[in-house]
Amino acid sequence: MANLYTTSRESKTVEIEEFSREGFPFRMIITLKKLGVVTMLDYLLTPEEAADMAKALNPSKK
Predict the structure, then answer these.
(1) For the chain, which terminal residue's Cβ has fewer other Cβ atoms within 10 angstroms, N or C?
(2) Residues 26, 14: contact at Cβ < 8 Å?
(3) By percentage, how much of the chain surpasses pLDDT 90?
(4) What value does the mean pLDDT of the chain take?
């Protein structure tokens, strides 16, 4: 799985990876580190969800 994007702030990290399983080409991972506990949440994205998310994050390209 190739990492396509990563951003971090304080105790939070967001990553987007290529993902080729179960018909989902992308996986978004959110990692939270607080009080010695690490919580990782992942969300599988369809191509349509990824495109909608890109439009929402770049309104000038609508």
Answers:
(1) C
(2) no
(3) 79
(4) 92
Tell me whether residue 14 is in a domain.
Answer: yes
What's the total number of domains in the chain?
Answer: 1
Integer-rounded Cα radius of gyration of the chain: 13
The verdict on residue 26 lying in a domain is yes
- Domain that includes residue 38, residue range: 3-56
Instruction: Note the Cα 21 to chain centre separation in Å.
Output: 16
- Residue-level pLDDT at 62: 56
Cβ pair 27, 42 in contact under 8 A: yes
The yes-or-no verdict on residue 1 having pLDDT over 90 is no
Structure tokens at 6: 């990563």
pLDDT tens across 25-45, in order? Answer: 999 999 999 999 999 999 999
With beta carbons less than 8 A apart as the criterion, state whether 5 and 13 touch. Answer: no
